[in-house]
Amino acid sequence: MNSPARPQPLAALPRTRIKMCGFTREADVDAAVAAGADALGFVLYAKSPRAVTAERAGELARRLPPFVTPVLLFVNPSANEVRAGCAAVPGAACCAASRGIAMAGDPLAGDSGSADL
User: Structural domain boundaries of the chain?
Assistant: First the structure.
């Protein structure tokens, strides 16, 4: 006779990480952190209604506690835009979008390439 499967303890289950994006205001950053977000995204694409400058992303990211990761979203960035974002938000993860496809960890995706560095 087979005994029923035992449920796994919570510690054995993988943890889902939560990323929220499009922050422009301090109060919203603080609320997302209080709600338990693991990563907060900042849009560095001027055509977006949620866009912030690299400097503003840096100001907002400085509010993040340890273990909350800042993420920078670029769309067809130039090498200079990526450099400015990385300088303003040290340690940020980068995500670039090209032709509507997001590519995590590839800040030079899109129309620019390594020759622009």
Answer: 48-117
